[in-house]
Amino acid sequence: MDSHVELKQQQGATLRRLCQQGDTMLIQHMLRSGAPVDSSQADGCTGLWLASEQGHVDVVKLLCDHGANVHVAKQPGDVTPLYIAAQNGHTTVVTLLLQHGALPNAAKATGATPLYIAAQQNFSDIVSALLRAGAGVGIVNQQGIGPLAIACFLGNLESVRLLLQAGADPDAQSGGKTPFEWANSNGNGQHVGRVLEQFRESRQRDLERRRGLARGDDVTPLQQKE
């Protein structure tokens, strides 16, 4: 093996180990010494992936600032750094990755997106961050199940509220069931049903208010034109 190639491989292996451990100072030294920032194992696992998994915020920022590829997925499963960070509840890492161009809808092999796993885990701050970044509320996995369905099934009320506010349909079927039916099948029908009904009522009031404004119902005599 070429000595230069062997050196880069050794540097890459060391860098990945340091990224997993969160040793920011040594990582910075290695990057300045020419260590390949995107060096990966055979399964595609990079230093950024490992740091994202562990929630090492400073390491993730350092790697991203050095141009690390935020899209590289680990096999098997096509799990991106964003997905693993969302799964493990690392809100700041999720935000950093999104700021550096990570795709919010990049799904793993099962079709599950970062939003799906965040809603499943009820990490509401991550759900909010992904929604702000444009994550699709209607994207479903290979079983046809979407974020709202899994959140309702598990009784994750805050995630349910956030998804509804972002445009998820409270009555659309997902995987053959409505959100309420998913909740009810797991003993969460009462609490989730209340949230769904409150959302429908709020949406109806807003619709009626906008219709009233369009008709001029809320215009007072002082506001009317002569």
Automatic annotation (TrEMBL):
PROSITE patterns: ANK_REP_REGION (PS50297), ANK_REPEAT (PS50088)
SUPFAM superfamilies for the chain: Ankyrin repeat
UniProt-listed InterPro entries: Ankyrin_rpt, Ankyrin_rpt-contain_sf
Pfam families: Ank_2
Organism: Bodo saltans
Region (Disordered): 173-194, 206-226
Full protein name: Ankyrin repeat protein, putative
Gene Ontology CC entries for this record: cytoplasm
Keywords assigned: ANK repeat, Repeat
Start and stop residues of the ANK repeats: 43-75, 77-109, 110-142, 143-175
